[in-house]
Design a protein that fits this description.
single chain; mainly alpha; Arc Repressor Mutant, subunit A
Length: about 160
């Protein structure tokens, strides 16, 4: 019964759902795609008791799909941007590296090592604790002190 209710709700709300998607995406083809994705996501996988519940699920899933499509359009893969395309990019990269080097000069060797593991290698505190034979609390405290020193140094540089 729930599946038939979802199908009948979708068919009854199809024009309204299309209008909602078109408002989000500003494009008829993208709105049609979002509508189709919504149906594919809910078809046979969603059991509903009332038509109001079916309507709510359809609108919520459609909205989420539209938001996902908008996010995908906004993001630009970093591989597509080269320093030749943006001449300022190389300057900014050099400035950032210089600033980071300056900030790291204020840190102890242990703080510098933990900072690099967190920021450049993407390690979490548990991994760092195992790697450096420390407790997680000690790593967390060192990282906290590192951030504090970096904030203080940045504040001095901006004055």
């Amino acid at each position: 019964m729930g599946l038939d209710l979802m199908t009948s709700s979708f068919m009854g709300l199809r024009d309204k759902l299309h209008h909602i998607a078109k408002r989000y995406l500003q494009n008829d083809e993208d709105a049609q795609d979002a509508l189709q994705d919504t149906w594919l996501k809910l078809n046979g996988k969603c059991d509903v008791e009332t038509s109001q519940e079916a309507r709510n699920k359809l609108v919520a899933v459609l909205r989420n799909i539209c938001i996902d499509q908008l996010r995908k359009k906004r993001t630009v893969p970093i591989d597509t941007i080269t320093s030749n395309d943006v001449p300022q990019c190389r300057m900014e990269t050099e400035d950032i590296e210089r600033l980071e080097h300056l900030l790291q000069q204020q840190l102890t060797p242990l703080q510098r090592q933990i900072f690099n593991l967190v920021t450049h290698e993407g390690c979490d505190y548990e991994q760092i604790a195992k790697r450096l034979s420390m407790t997680v609390e000690a790593v967390r405290m060192n990282m906290s002190r590192t951030r504090k020193k970096i904030r203080e140094t940045l504040k001095m540089l901006n004055q």
